[in-house]
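Before a colleague's protein record goes any further, I have to sign it off. Would you go through it and say whether the fold makes sense for this chain? Take the sequence as given and treat only the tokens as open to question. The record follows directly below this note.
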Amino acid sequence: MGALAVLGIAAGGIAACGGDDPVESDDGTTTSPPIEPTDETSDEAPTDDAPTDDGADAPTSEDEAAPTDEPEAPPEDGDGGEDGAPTDPEECDAPPGSDCDYAPDEPLELTLPIREIADADALDANRTDTVGDNSAVIALVDAAGAGELGEYEVALQTDTEPYSIDIRYSSINPEIEEWEWMETGHDIGVLLLATIGNIDMVLYTHPDGESGGATTRETATWDLGADPLELGADRGGLLEMIENLSATP
């Protein structure tokens, strides 16, 4: 629009140079009368307020003439995030700290479900109130079935809270998948939380020394609906817990 306005002013200047007709003098020369300045603006000079002939600035539709500040509507592809999972914590059926990312369509079939590797009798016989009872803890880790998943050593955290057990694997049973090692490791952790009175967490560390998982008392309580110590207070409770863990991998 600025370029058009400049061109219009130039056109108005040319129109103002018209003057009267030339006058012929007595000696035969022709001169033009002086041009008198004028303050009037040419009727043909477009202004910034007038629309141009090409309609460049004129609105072409009602939408262009009436802009709106309303935000665009979100895509109608679900109520959740990118993967469709619910993002509202109240809609997320998961233990504390979970982000609802994992929700299998069908129950997982484990090669080594916890009912096939855990010994309820040995768990009940070796239960202890403290993680500092080394011999009892070692027996419990074995009774929970940790050796069926691979070779390991046990590290105990007994000095400061949270008290914990770390089952550090040096090799993994080649018959099981990586995800199964994690699932069964979680179940082993639940059984240890049910038979060792003062531990807060059971960790299981991969042979690479970096990856692995952890089962906390809070998570186990959420999974079971009650503290594992209460549900596994006797042999019958341990047997029922083992069956329930095997049914819901």
